[in-house]
Amino acid sequence: MSKVAGVHDADEMSEMSDPTAGPAVPPPLPAVPDADWSRVLCVVAHPDDMEYGTSSAVATWTRRGVEVCYLLLTAGEAGMAEPPEVVAPLRAIEQRNACAAVGVTDLRILDHPDGMLEYGLALRRDIARVVRQVRPDAVVTANFDVEAYGGFNQADHRAAGLAVVDGVRDAANPWVFRELAEEGLAPWHTGGLLVANPAQPTHAVTVDEEAVRAAVASLNCHEAYLRHVTDHPRPEEMIPEILRAGGAAAGTEYAAAFRYYGL
Ligand SMILES: [Zn+2]
Q1: How far is ligand 1, taken at its centre, from the CA of residue 161, in Å?
Q2: CA-CA distance, 129 to 99, in Å (whole number)?
Q3: How many angstroms separate the alpha carbon of residue 12 from the centre of ligand 1?
Q4: Nearest Cα to 76, choosing from 112, 42, 50?
C-alpha cells in the first residue's frame, strides 16, 4: 500500500510529541487582505455595536482613504430606560458622532424593531439592497455566535449576523429579490466578509495608538447610552484591553481581530 500524502512518519510524530517542548505557540494572525479595498460596508444591529474595538480598524481604513459606510438595522430604540421615541433620535445623534470620530460620514439606520429583529427575507433584502448601493470590497459584521461576549449573545446580534451572511450573497444573485433590479440596483459580488470580535479569529487589522484613541472616542460618543448601562467599564480601559488582546494574537501591540472569509 502506498504512503498517504500528508501522513507523518514515525520519526516526525515522535518529534511533534516531544514532552520537553513547551506549549505550542500559535503563529501570529495574518493581516486582513485589505490593501486594495476602496469601500467597506459595516452592518450591525444597533448603535454602538461597532464601537467595541472594531471602529479602530475603521479609523485605520478611513485614514488611508477607504470609504466606510455603517448600516444599522435598528435605531436601538429599546436599549434605554426612556421611551423609544425619545431614544431613537438621541442614539442616532450619538452614532453620528461616533462615526465622525473614526472618519465615517455615511450612516444609514433602518427601522427594524430593536430587541425584536427577525431573521428573514425582509432583513436579507434590506441588507442586499444596501450592498448593491454601496458596492463594497468587504462587509463587516459583529459576532453572531450563540455564546459571545462572555455569555449568551443578544437575540438581535444573532439575527443580524446571519442575515448579513445571506444578504451579502443575495446581493450577488440576480434571481433573488428581483425588485432590487427594478429599483435600478445591479447585482454586486462582495469579495470578503469579516466577523468582528470572534471567539476564534483568523485575521487581524493592526492598529496604531491614534486609531485606538479614535476607537475610545467613538465609544465615548454614546454618552447617554453609557450613562444608562450600570457598571459599564470605562472605554479608556476597555477598548485598549480588547485591542491589546488582538495585538497579542497578531504579534503587534494593538490589533482588531476578525474571522475573515474570502467570497
Ligand atoms: Zn448590540
Answers
A1: 11
A2: 21
A3: 48
A4: 112
> pTM score, two decimals?
0.91
Where do the structural domains in the chain lie, given as residue ranges?
33-262
pLDDT tens for 98-136 read 999 999 999 999 999 999 999 999 999 999 999 999 999
Cβ proximity of 254 and 212 under 8 Å? yes
Beta strands in the chain (DSSP E): 39-44, 67-74, 106-112, 138-142, 147-148, 151-152, 192-196, 203-206, 255-262
Q: What is the pLDDT of residues 187-209, one digit of tens each?
A: 999 999 999 999 999 999 999 99
In this structure, CATH architecture of domain 33-262: 3-Layer(aba) Sandwich (3.40)
Cα separation, 96 vs 105, in Å, equals 8
Residue 238 CA to ligand 1 centre (angstroms)? 16
**The CA-based dihedral angle spanning residues 147, 162, 221, 106, taken in that order and rounded to the nearest 10 degrees:** 160
Residue 74 Cα to ligand 1 midpoint, Å, equals 9
Cell 439592497, residue located: 129
